[in-house]
Amino acid sequence: MTTTARRTQTVAALGAALALVLTACGDDGGGGTTSTGEDAGLEGATLTVGSKEFTESNVLMWITIGALQNAGADVSDASLAGSATVREALESGELDMYWEYTGTGWVNILGNTTVDLPDDLYAAVAEADAENEIAWLEPAPLDDTYRIAVTGDFAEENSLTNMTEAAEFINDNADDGTLCAASEFINRDDGLPGLQEAYGFEFSDVIELDLSLVYTEIGGSCQFGEVFSTDGRILGNNLTVLEDDGEFFPGYNAALTMRQETLDEFPAIEEVMTPIAEALTDEEITALNAAVDVDGETEEDVAMEWLEENGFVG
User: Fold this and answer.
1) Which class is 14-143+251-309 in CATH?
2) Which of 36, 102, 175, 225 could anchor a disulfide with 218, C-beta 3.0 to 4.6 Å?
3) Angle at CA 58, nearest 5°, toward 53 and 61?
């Protein structure tokens, strides 16, 4: 999934934070010539797209900005810290849209638990959030769920492939049960508290870090670390992701969320974004994340290159 992804933080300073981070990135001209932009009906629209302050969320924001600009809209960006902050900005009208995850919507926004998840999590979230006048467009195939990871060598040495084995190992080897994780994962019900309860164990120590530091500290400051399943740094740091064999974590399919009034005013947004969402598979988003976090490209450049390579902008 703040620190970073899908992370809950206080919203008291929302107005001030937005004032600092809102950056105009639209253009006056615009319309595109591709199937996603041609005759899209967004000329004259002024929109603000938000994100949480982690790579994948920012990449999705810039993909959206590029696509909407191509369709004729004037678009601004706003990268905020934490799930609660960006959601509050959406509800207050300071943002028009941002990409959210179904698991975060179900647990953190709608107040449910990870017990007895609905068979169609997206449909349940979309239906429930409609009562809040928030629309969820069709989700992408990508499922960026929480996972726990170790180094490849540590996994091999201790025969660890899944969370049941990890829980048994930690219960038997307390001194080797240190976890590095970001603050939101440490505190949210679909994160550390629920995970430990579900598998019947407790990490011997938890080191709170910015998520960007967790990947390089696995095998250093800690044996275990919180990761996101589509993060390119998993490959870049030779990490082994432990299977959630008890199926604790809900699905985290990404979907563009927006106020219903925005969608009603500009229904062409759905026309523009649906084929883009359909193309965002686990493999595609992992490669985009790796281009930023491993290869050092900017999120905006990676997003625009992907839009162009896939024919979504011209």
Assistant:
1) alpha beta
2) 225
3) 130
Q: How do the domains of the chain map onto residue ranges?
A: 14-143+251-309, 146-241
In contact, 76 and 152? CB cutoff 8 Å: no
Residue at token pair 């164990």: 201
The helix/strand/coil state of 111 is: coil
pLDDT digits (tens, 9 = 90+) for 192-213: 999 999 999 999 999 999 988 9
What is the structure's pLDDT at 11? 33
Report which of 297, 308, 282 is spatially closest to residue 145, judged by C-alpha positions: 282
Alpha helices in the chain (DSSP H): 14-21, 55-70, 83-92, 102-104, 121-130, 152-157, 163-172, 183-187, 192-199, 211-217, 233-236, 260-265, 268-279, 282-293, 299-309
Contact yes or no for 67/27 (Cβ under 8 A): no
User: pLDDT at position 9, please?
Assistant: 34
Position 4 pLDDT exceeds 80:
no
Domain 146-241 part of CATH 3.40.190.120: yes
Structure tokens at 33: 């010539």
Record the tokens describing residue 141, joined without a space. Answer: 């195939």
Per-residue 3-state assignment (H helix, E strand, C coil) for 219-286: CCCECEEEEECCCCHHHHCCEEECECCCCCCCCCEEEEEEEHHHHHHCCHHHHHHHHHHHHCCHHHHH
Residues 227/229/235/240 CA torsion (nearest 10 deg): 70
Phi, psi (rounded to 5 degrees) for 302: -60, -45
Residue 238 Ramachandran class (φ > 0 left, ψ -120 to 50 alpha, else beta): left
N-terminal to C-terminal alpha carbon distance within the chain: 31
Q: How confident is the model at residue 40 (pLDDT cuts 50, 70, 90)?
A: low
